[in-house]
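Dear Dr. K.,

Following up on our conversation at the group meeting, I've run the structure prediction for Succinate dehydrogenase assembly factor 3 from Drosophila willistoni. I'm pasting the input sequence below exactly as I used it, so you can double-check it against your construct before we proceed with anything downstream. Let me know if the numbering doesn't match what you have in your notebook.
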Amino acid sequence: MQLNQLSHPQRVRLLYKTILRLHRGLPTELRALGDNYVRDEFRRHLKCNPMEAQLFMTEWARYASTITQQLGLRGKPKGEIGEHLDEKAVEMLKDDQVVQLYELMLASKGLHGDTITADDVRGK
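The predicted structure tokens came back this morning:
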């Protein structure tokens, strides 16, 4: 069966499982962090509108492609994992996304307990 013959839920499930499989090649700490983040994001977008779903799938497919390139065919990191965020892309994020990104950065560096809220971002 070809990818374009799959239903939307089947494509989502395939992407989700592909990403979790790719994470097996990450260092242990990053794998746990990445797996938890992916599970949370996919759960959070279960009932999003079609436009958000298309953007969601496009961005996660791009992520899977990037990880595939960085891990290579054998699933071993070929250098630095991840990529730097474009400043313009960060500026386009919603307040709650900035908070989530900040908390993800803290977790990736092993820093816990220093969290901010969307109100902190808005300066309230």
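Two things stood out to me. The chain has two domains: 1-79, 84-124. Residues 20 and 35 are 6 Å apart (CA to CA).

Best regards,
J.T.
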